[in-house]
Specification:
about 35% helix, 3-stranded antiparallel beta sheet, binds zinc ion, Creatine Amidinohydrolase, Chain A, domain 1, 19 strands, 2 domains, elongated, 6-stranded mixed beta sheet, alpha+beta, Creatine Amidinohydrolase
Length: about 400
């Protein structure tokens, strides 16, 4: 099989150094306003994604304790060098304590105790990111002098709106995925396995400067494309088949998410020779549905309205029950985050949010099609960040 990475640009095309720094102190200031609103003396942030957002620390263990006047990142000795360096890069006023486990427990007790000097304190926990065992142990240790208060989605709500430096990272992640797809399309003519295609996309994204794929790359060929989240197998991709490729890159924590349904072995610019019959129709419907969904995205629109725009097109083609998943989701430090674009979403879109629009049609035993872009919501519409061409059957 022809080498893929050889045609790609050199390593490190998009590394952290070439991106503007994310200024994180405003995130802490905004979170403190939320603490005041909730009458919290202390907030213990245990979601590692939220910790990364707030102070820049990207390690695998740590928590952030925030009070009105103090912010402490508590981690362990493995991160004694990395944590202060990452925190300094984000510019947030955060003290770093890299300690052994017993000392972490003692420090946490001290911080909670200090917050309680003016009486019984209210300590907020992230209800969705604390284990039952941890909550029990903290309730036992601190229960005499504080009240534990569950909070839900406080930092996640802040994360929905991306500033320019965050958008630069998502943009870079989208561009790396575009470049990887363009470097890997030619190999589809050579009967690669789905797994080989996925590996080529992943390694090309990394060689271009991505820190990792944003999620497990999906390559679904022929009848396998009837499964929206098919995991790549040893099945050989046959020339002329529809192949669904769903993948993204991660740059300094931020993700992109894109799906293209392509015809294996079709030369660039060549549009004939694609699918026929119900598969061709499924692809045409998906493309028209996504056009309608993208046209519906703008500030002030409710999530379900984008969903309805996509679903109306699929429904008019009599394929409503073949569109078996939500229309889209927010993208940022996590590949799936708020806001949601499903029928039951309560979210209202506003400028600075990054979302996907990704209708699909799945025909069991036959195949399927999906197309997905990552876009930035603007006041009057959206800016599409994933720019890879879409295969459209010849009319
Ligand atoms: Zn996707
Ligand atoms: Zn997606």
């Amino acid at each position: 099989m022809r080498g893929v990475a050889a045609s790609a640009p050199p390593f490190g095309a998009a590394n952290r150094a070439s991106l503007p720094p994310v200024d994180r102190q405003p995130f802490l200031d905004r979170l403190r306003e939320q603490m005041v609103r909730r009458r919290l003396d202390l907030l213990v942030v245990t979601s590692l994604v939220n910790v990364r957002y707030l102070c820049g620390f990207s390690g695998s263990a740590g928590l952030l304790v925030l009070s009105e006047s103090d912010a402490v990142l508590v981690t362990d000795g493995r991160y004694g060098l990395q944590a202060p360096a990452e925190v300094a890069m984000g510019g947030a006023r955060v003290r770093v304590e890299a300690l052994a486990a017993p000392d972490q427990v003692r420090l946490l007790g001290e911080l909670v105790g200090a917050a309680a000097t003016a009486g019984r304190s209210r300590v907020g926990l992230e209800a969705e990111h604390v284990s039952w065992a941890t909550q029990r142990s903290w309730a036992t240790a601190w229960g005499r002098y504080c009240t534990l208060v569950g909070t839900v989605g406080v930092v996640e709500a802040m994360r929905q709106h991306k500033g320019p430096a965050e958008l630069a990272r998502v943009r870079s992640a989208a561009s790396l995925a575009d470049q990887a797809l363009s470097a890997c399309l030619a190999m589809l003519a050579e009967r690669p396995s789905e797994a080989e295609v996925a590996l080529a996309l992943d390694s090309t994204m990394r060689s271009l400067g991505a820190e990792a794929p944003a999620f497990s790359t999906i390559v679904a060929s022929g009848p396998n494309a009837a499964e929206p989240h098919h995991q790549p197998t040893r099945r050989a991709v046959e020339r002329g088949e529809l192949v669904v490729l769903d993948f993204g890159a991660r740059v300094d924590g931020y993700c992109s998410d894109m799906t293209r349904t392509v015809v294996a072995g079709l030369e660039e610019g060549e549009r004939a020779g694609g699918p026929t019959g119900e598969l061709r129709r499924a692809l045409e419907v998906v493309l028209a549905s996504q056009d309608a969904g993208l046209a519906a995205v703008r500030g002030g629109v409710r999530g379900p309205e984008v969903d309805r725009a996509c679903r109306e097109v699929v429904g008019a083609a009599g394929l409503a029950e073949r569109f078996v998943h939500g229309t889209g989701h927010g993208v940022g430090l996590e590949v799936h985050e708020a806001p949601a674009l499903g029928a039951s979403s309560q979210d209202i879109l506003s400028p600075g949010q990054v979302v996907t629009v990704e209708p699909g049609v799945y025909l069991p035993g036959v195949g399927g099609a999906r197309t997905e872009d990552t876009v930035v919501v603007t006041e009057h519409g959206c800016e599409v960040l994933t720019l890879s061409p879409k295969y459209r059957p010849v009319p």
